[in-house]
């Protein structure tokens, strides 16, 4: 019986039971030592660092693209810090604005510690008094801070129904959203002084 080793053998009914010849393993070549090359060794994997990320390395630097130029607007954190400084100056009743239930520029003592392009206004509300919080547009942040008394902020829909009521807690700054329907109500028994800081 002969076998053709050049083509793969297909089993047939005649060859299924036939024994296959034993193949001897081809002699293996002796192992060859690696050849030393003049190429430098491959460096280890780099350690992650922000050095190669342009957004992190160049943060705060001027950009060559006009559409990426900084606008110089104060952040919400700077507005909150300005409101904290202004409300601390309005602790004394002698510095409160004389006109009640209306927003007006804060006294000079309250604006003295505020730097940058920020507008500081204040309102003094009599007990059970209220005022409308002016709308500054969707892209202009505003913050409120209670300097004295007790007050609540009411969010009102365009139809006039109340959406939410939030207390202005002493020592806390409230960031206003983009909506324009806010009312401020004095819910205490003494005058409430509220500071508003906008861009």
TrEMBL record:
Name of the molecule in the record: Homogentisate 1,2-dioxygenase
Positions of the UniProt region annotated as Disordered: 1-29
Top-rank taxon, per record: Bacteria
Native organism taxonomy: Bacteria, Bacillati, Actinomycetota, Actinomycetes, Streptosporangiales
């Amino acid at each position: 019986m002969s076998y053709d080793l050049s083509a793969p053998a297909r089993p047939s009914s005649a060859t299924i039971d036939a024994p296959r010849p034993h193949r001897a393993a081809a002699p293996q070549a002796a192992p060859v030592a690696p050849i030393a090359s003049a190429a430098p060794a491959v460096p280890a994997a780099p350690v992650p660092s922000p050095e190669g990320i342009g957004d992190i390395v160049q943060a705060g630097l001027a950009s060559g693209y006009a559409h990426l130029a900084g606008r110089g607007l104060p952040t919400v954190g700077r507005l909150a810090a300005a409101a904290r400084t202004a409300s601390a100056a309005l602790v004394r009743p002698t510095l409160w604005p004389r006109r009640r239930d209306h927003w007006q520029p804060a006294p000079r003592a309250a604006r003295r510690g505020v730097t940058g392009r920020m507008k500081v206004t204040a309102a003094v509300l009599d007990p059970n008094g209220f005022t409308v919080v002016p709308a500054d547009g969707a892209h202009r942040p505003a913050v409120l801070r209670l300097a004295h008394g007790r007050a609540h902020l009411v969010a009102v829909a365009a139809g006039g129904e109340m959406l939410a009521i939030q207390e202005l807690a002493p020592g806390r700054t409230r960031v206003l959203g983009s909506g324009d329907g806010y009312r401020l109500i004095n819910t205490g028994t003494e005058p409430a002084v509220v500071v508003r800081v906008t861009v």
